[in-house]
UniProtKB/TrEMBL annotation:
Residues 2-116 form the Response regulatory domain. GO terms for molecular function: phosphorelay response regulator activity; transcription cis-regulatory region binding. GO terms for cellular component: cytosol; protein-DNA complex. The gene is cosR. It holds the Pfam family Trans_reg_C. Keywords: DNA-binding, Phosphoprotein, Transcription, Transcription regulation, Two-component regulatory system. Residues 121-219 bind DNA. Coiled coil: none annotated. This is Homeostatic response regulator transcription factor HsrA.
Length: 223
């Protein structure tokens, strides 16, 4: 499970991230609206935890950005504003929960877990192909495919952006925790794994290489 934390109080954001990581969550941190919008554009999040008031934008506008890109992503607002009007405004914009500062961290985790349990499915289903990110499981016509780790994440990311050409740099930034420490050829290795372990045995094609631009999910092939 990946969570984006949008909090302009650096210490608080770091504390929340470290706490959530102890519970097994992957986290990204942003301290402003622009950075949050960037992360939302390149990565898929199960939940976004955001302050209502940001130095360069409004948390309400961020809710709209998140829900337009991924309606299933849960949005939990944390805010020092404890008036009824702010809370109602956030819920009407699409927030799934509203937590007032200061809060107890254990209560925060419990509410995030509850929200993630009741959130929408992340399963991707295209014709006879089903990709389940939560279970790290792929099935095609009832056959389960043995594809794990980074190749699975690359396939999932491309499938979620099936109408787009995704560059190597975008894939590195979206999937690897420290993309600056790995070389772009790890993407080629992952793509080769997908083709060898999945496409070739099943006689299908899921990813096409777009020369000098990146990769595109292409299943099923259009006539």
């Amino acid at each position: 499970m990946r969570i984006l934390i949008v909090e302009d109080e650096t210490t608080l954001g770091k504390t929340i991230a470290e706490g959530l990581q102890e519970f097994g969550y992957q986290t990204d941190n942003s301290e402003n609206f622009n950075d949050a919008e960037y992360f939302i554009g390149i990565r898929n999040y199960d939940l976004v935890l955001s302050d209502l008031m940001l130095p360069d934008g409004d948390g309400i506008d961020l809710i709209n950005v998140i829900k337009q890109k991924s309606p299933r992503t849960s949005v939990v607002i944390i805010s020092a504003k404890d008036d009824k009007e702010s809370e109602i405004k956030a819920f009407k914009a699409g927030a799934d929960d509203y937590i007032k500062k200061p809060f107890d961290f254990d209560i925060l985790v419990a509410r995030l877990e509850a929200r993630l349990r009741f959130g929408g499915t992340n399963v991707i289903k295209i014709d006879d192909l089903t990709i389940d990110p939560d279970e790290e499981k792929i099935t095609y016509q009832g056959i389960e495919i043995e594809l794990k780790g980074k190749p699975f994440e690359v396939l999932t990311h491309l499938a979620r952006h099936s109408d787009q050409i995704v560059s190597k740099e975008q894939l590195l930034d979206a999937i690897w925790e420290e993309p600056e420490l790995v070389t772009p050829n790890v993407i080629e290795v992952a793509i080769n794994q997908i083709r060898q372990k999945m496409d070739k045995p099943l006689n299908i094609s899921t990813i096409e290489t777009v020369r000098r631009r990146g990769y595109r999910f292409c299943f099923p092939k259009k006539a």
